[in-house]
Give the backbone structure.
Amino acid sequence: MSSEIEDIVADSIEELAVDDLIENREESEGNNRTPRWELFVAFTSSILAVLSALAALMATFASDKATVALSNEGSFSSSAEGLDASRTVLHAKFEILKAMNQSPSEDDLAELQHLDRKRSEMRARIASAGAVSDHQLKAHDRLAIAVTLFQVTMLLGGVAVMVKRRLVWFFGLGFSAVGCVFLLLGMMGYLY
């Protein structure tokens, strides 16, 4: 009888062990599946990474354009100062001639008019370069904000997956929507 009991117990243990293995396998298979929303987090994060890289590249270009415009503004300002110095010398010559009761030559008067035209032209170039620089810096600022918002969204997506809270991801998507607005504003500022 003890051999029968041992056989029954052995069979029961084998059945329990097989059942446990099946349950453990089903549980482990269930745990290996990524929830669908986590796949969307990964997908949106990859899209946001591309948008962030695009915004960063355009922000760099806008910054470079602003720097070139500032350099041009400095060059034009130097030229304008040189023209101002030439005008000052010519006016001093006119004052000396006036003190000697002589009038300036036609060439000197023509030179003064030429210097005045060039000075007006330089002032217009200075204003234009300054406006371009300001415009490009505004575009750069908007694009830099977009980059930051996209990166915050990606961070919140990772946090959402770790704490298994979809609400955190949705909150991050709000940041990405604002980032898209800044990206569009920056692109319009960069292109126009």
User: Anything to note?
Assistant: Residues 35-191 form one domain.
